[in-house]
Amino acid sequence: MLDPRKLRLLRELSRLGTIAAVAQAANFTPSAVSQQLSALEREAGTTLLERTGRTVALTPAGRVLVEHAHAVLKELERAAAALAAIGGEPSGPLRIGAFPSATRALLPKALAELARAHPGLTPMVSEIDPADVAAALRAGELDVALVHEYDFVPPVVDQGVRAEPLFEEVMFLTNRASIRAARRDPWILATPGTLCHTMAIRACQAAGFEPRVHHHVDDFDTVLAFVAAGQGVALVPSLAAAAPPDGVRLTPLPLRRRTLVAFRSGYGDHPAVCAAVAALRATRPESALSVSQGWHSTADAG
């Protein structure tokens, strides 16, 4: 019998590519991961990995097993969700991940609605960059998470994670009429590796230039304070633009940020996840564009 816990490690290896990366994601030692994968090979009765020095690659059998692992793990998640539904009213811990502007602007009302509708649930919130959400969901560190995607930054497809749209926002440029007009300005961008950073870089590239980055700041309130202090220009979403400080002008652009709620692909019917999604939908900001208006493709922001 194949052990689902070992199948998860094999799935992570197919995604991450190295034993060390799997160990870090799973909070194991590399030696423990290697031992578990060796045990999985014995259970499968065939070679799943090709080891050459420090590199590891999946064999054809390993790739076949990974495809089945996606289906097996999803069915186990569905089974857990079905059992939880039998218990009636959802209760217990509910681990929620969110990016900073959502934590501030969305979650307080959503948590109040969740407490009103389902007092047995105990929400536990952690701030996390959307780029790290899929791994945290697959590892069971989160149950549900708010993520975002931008024009110029297509979503990352992950078989272990399902995401449903909540709303979309207009993006604003500070103190300039267009991105092209800001080509000689210093820029304030998010930390490299984040979706916000990638979006800003690609928006500038689409306008024909590479931005001169002077500051890396992730909190949009701080970004606007830097803009007000004359430290540069920036792109900010409407959630962060409700009350800009003096000295900050905001120009709407034909760019959008879309917020989605994500969870493990087999947990769509889990009572706690359904409760969280319902609370988020009930309290999403009135100023946001309705998803029924249709999501926009990448636009010319020059």
TrEMBL record:
Q: Which SUPFAM superfamilies match?
A: Periplasmic binding protein-like II, Winged helix' DNA-binding domain
Q: Name one Pfam family in it.
A: HTH_1
Alphabetically sorted, this entry's keywords are:
DNA-binding, Transcription, Transcription regulation
Ranges of residues in domain HTH lysR-type: 2-59
Family under the similarity heading: Belongs to the LysR transcriptional regulatory family.
Which InterPro entries does the entry link to?
LysR_HTH_N, LysR_subst-bd, WH-like_DNA-bd_sf, WH_DNA-bd_sf
Per the record, the coiled-coil ranges are none
Annotated PANTHER family? LYSR SUBSTRATE-BINDING, TRANSCRIPTIONAL DUAL REGULATOR HCAR-RELATED
Listed name of the protein: LysR family transcriptional regulator
